[in-house]
Every structure is written in structure tokens, then in C-alpha cells.
Specification:
This protein has 5 helices and 17 strands. It is α+β, with helices and mostly antiparallel strands. It comes from Paeniglutamicibacter psychrophenolicus.
Amino acid sequence: MTKLSFELPDGTTKTVVVTDLLNAGYAGREQEEVQAHIAELAELGVPGPSATPAMYPVSSYLAQQAGEVVVQHGRTSGEAEWALVVTDEGVLLTAACDHTDRDLEVHGVAWSKNAGPDVLGRKAWRLDDVREHLDRITLRAWVGAEGEADTLIQDSSLGALLTPDYWLDVLGERGLNKPGTVLISGTVAMIAGVDQFAQSWRVEMSDPVTGQSIEVAYAVRQMAEPIG
């Protein structure tokens, strides 16, 4: 099982053994906009979900705190998200980047989610400490290429997504609101015209009330061509 460690604002560290990893999808609060997005994806050959919002179980070892993601080809990309981490001392909130195989996505979203890691931050906040101003917390992502400045590709706030409490209720209904469960939120819209198939991804979740931020950053490296 994967073990993750998080530094909390008070300087303490919380270690969690991940038993269940879940990826939310189509998780915008404005579900009419979500349905329009599903229609756009259908034109690209991506199958729509049977229900929205969706939730996809993912192999627990894919929860990582890595500085590099190794991929099989050039059509994979990240997604700026938040992650909730259920511990024996309450729920933590951190930044995350769901690295997804876009070629595989047209055959099945759940398959694509299991083809790459969910990279989580090394810092976290207690959900109870930020719950009252969650919608003010910003969520941004940048992509990078060698020799170039990073380019902003996502710029939104947690107010665009269904809340952690919504998903905690869903987890409770399924017997998954228990220590070791990690849920990734689903993502926000990408800025048109920015190439998502980049050499690096960086996600930042910033709290304007406390002045604190949590970052996830990693390089993307393509593995060698197979033989056979």
C-alpha cells in the first residue's frame, strides 16, 4: 500500500496509508455546464458517463508524491484538482494533479484514470480550518516546456467544484468515509489554445485568508519505445 506524508500548518506531519483512491469526474457545481462539456467531449469520441457527477475507483498505488511522471506516449496531461485525505484525526485537504492518458480516454474514462498517477502535495490543511472560506481558495495550473516560461492553463477557484462535504457524504453512503481513503475532486476548465501535452505540470492551491499555498510540481518523461 502507498504511504503519504503531509506537513500541516502547525509544523506537524501526518502519515496516511492509502487504502482507497477515487477520482471524481464531471464534478462542476453548475451541472448544466457539465452536460455541455460532455457533449463537446462526445464529438471527440470520449464516451459520456452514465451519471453525473461520476466517481471512478483507482488503484491505490497511483496516489503519489512524485517529482516525475513517466508516460507511454506524448498525449497525456495533468488536471488541477484538490484532494481530500481521510485520516484517523479528521480530513485533510491538499492540492493534486490527476495525470491522464488522453488517447486511452476515448475508450474509457475509468481506464484512462488508471493509466497515470494522482500526484498529491506534500503539505495539507485540516478541512475544518478552511471549510468556511473554501470558495475563496484559488486553484491554478501551469504547463512548461524546456527553455520557456511556464504558461497558465487553468485558473479558477474551489467554488467551481462540488465541495469536499458533498463527497464526504457520498463516501459515507458507500462505507468509504474512513481513514485511508483519498478522493480527487475533478478539475476545472482549461484555457483555450494552451498545449496541455507539456513537459511539466505545476498546480497551486492558494488561500487568500491565511496567505498559505500548497503546490504540486512534476516533470513528464516519456519512456523508451517498446520492442515487440
